[in-house]
Design goal:
Layout (H helix, E strand, L loop, with lengths): L38 E10 L6 H9 L8 E3 H23 L3 E9 L4 E9 L23 H17 L26 H10 L4 H10 L3 H10 L6 H8 L8 H16 L8 H8 L4 H17 L4 H16 L4 H15 L7 H13 L12
Parallel strand pairs: 1-4
Antiparallel strand pairs: 1-2, 3-4
Helix pairs in contact: 1-2, 3-4, 3-6, 5-6, 6-8, 7-8, 8-10, 9-10, 10-12, 11-12, 11-13
Protein name: HEAT repeat domain-containing protein
Organism: Myxococcus stipitatus (strain DSM 14675 / JCM 12634 / Mx s8)
């Protein structure tokens, strides 16, 4: 996955997509790293979130302005025109129908150099999907330069990813409860050292920053830094409240770390209700992290299968129809784990299984997460 200059989904490809990026040999120190290629194959656009309109109807203004699927785009040259086309589609969509939210997100994959757009919408009447905790108003000073150290580490990591030196599949050896890519690379290990030594002594300060600071960027960085905390349980307790953060960046960071944290835990650490609420969030970054987290959570305990299917069955099926890998795969992982079956990507069989399973369940009161 590469980050473009627009609203790019920061996605967890490792363990989420069966895509492997080839690791190229590292350039000798005397050579300047080559500029990353920015030519992507545009693979199309899809839409998520409406209960009132057809996808075809809502995507029409975008399709009229965007290049055909399969077009090669040099984002250095074509990026501005591409983003303007997306903005025009959004403007026309809002003018025609009116929505509580419209968001265009671009996801780019290093493997195959492909790119796909997701348009997230929230219907009028579904504003509850946008309801989160009030915005924090505090200010917490940066402890021991840890946020700066994290930014330095992340910048170097993305440079190595974008130049093909490390792969988005390479997440070991991980010395925290969550890692991005290439943590064992010799350029990254020295940059991680201050995080390993500094976070445990400032853990409570970082928790306070993640929960109370008015700056969403600081809350996001603090969430990632908490992965270097002293214990799995303490990190989980610190991050779960951020699943209700009013800004998508801290929510995304918290659920990403919790996903990997839960994956290696022996018992459930995240309340199921919080995860199911995440699936109803307004953005692809909400639901794909929540689905990944749900997949590893139900692997520990499938006893609430009926609750999960009643609450999230339709969302999971809609995600499973997506061509966007980061939507489809975690949804299918949840369905496989819940069912103990594997229908591959045969959506008709998955839909039948969900419907038959729900029909056999006793009726339940409506959930506050699905109004």
């Amino acid at each position: 996955m590469r980050r473009l200059s627009y609203l790019v989904s920061l996605v967890l490809l490792g363990g989420c997509a069966n895509q492997r990026a080839e690791t190229r040999p590292e350039s000798p120190p005397s050579e300047k790293p080559s500029k990353p290629a920015m030519v992507y194959r545009f693979e199309g656009i899809e839409l998520f979130g409406t209960r009132k309109y057809t996808r075809e109807e809502l995507l029409a203004p975008y399709l009229a302005a965007l290049p055909p699927s399969g077009t090669l785009l040099d984002m250095e040259k074509d990026g501005d025109a591409f983003i303007q086309a997306l903005a025009k589609g959004k403007e026309q969509l809002q003018a025609r129908h009116g929505f509580a939210l419209i968001r265009n997100s671009v996801t780019a994959y290093a493997q195959g150099m492909t790119m796909r757009v997701t348009v997230d919408v929230v219907d009028l009447g579904d504003e509850w999907r946008l309801e989160y905790a009030p915005a924090p108003t505090g200010s917490v000073p940066e402890p021991e330069g840890l946020l700066t150290a994290w930014s330095t580490y992340l910048t170097r990591m993305w440079r190595l990813v974008n130049s093909g030196v490390i792969s988005t599949e390479d997440t070991e050896p991980c010395r925290a409860f969550h890692c991005f890519y290439g943590p064992g690379h010799p350029e990254l290990m020295p940059l991680e050292a201050p995080l390993l030594s500094g976070v445990p002594g400032h853990f409570e300060t970082l928790v306070r920053m993640a929960h109370t600071d008015a700056d969403a960027t600081k809350r996001e960085k603090a969430a990632y830094l908490l992965a270097y905390g002293p214990s799995r349980d303490e990190v989980a307790r610190a991050l779960v409240p951020l699943m209700n953060d009013p800004n998508e960046a801290p929510r995304n960071a918290a659920m990403r770390v919790l996903w990997k944290l839960q994956e290696k835990a022996d018992t459930p650490l995240v309340p199921l209700e919080k995860v199911l609420r995440g699936l109803q969030g307004p953005l692809i970054s909400d639901r794909n992290k929540a689905a990944g987290l749900l997949a590893v959570l139900v692997a520990k305990d499938t006893s609430r299968r009926g609750d999960i299917l009643q609450e999230a069955g339709q969302v999971l099926l809609e995600m499973a129809t997506a061509k966007q890998v980061i939507e489809r795969k975690p949804a299918l992982d949840v369905l496989r784990t819940l069912s103990g079956k594997d229908f591959g990507e045969d959506l008709a069989r998955w839909r039948t299984w969900v419907q038959e399973t729900l029909a056999a369940q006793p009726s339940r009161a409506p959930s506050p997460n699905h109004r």
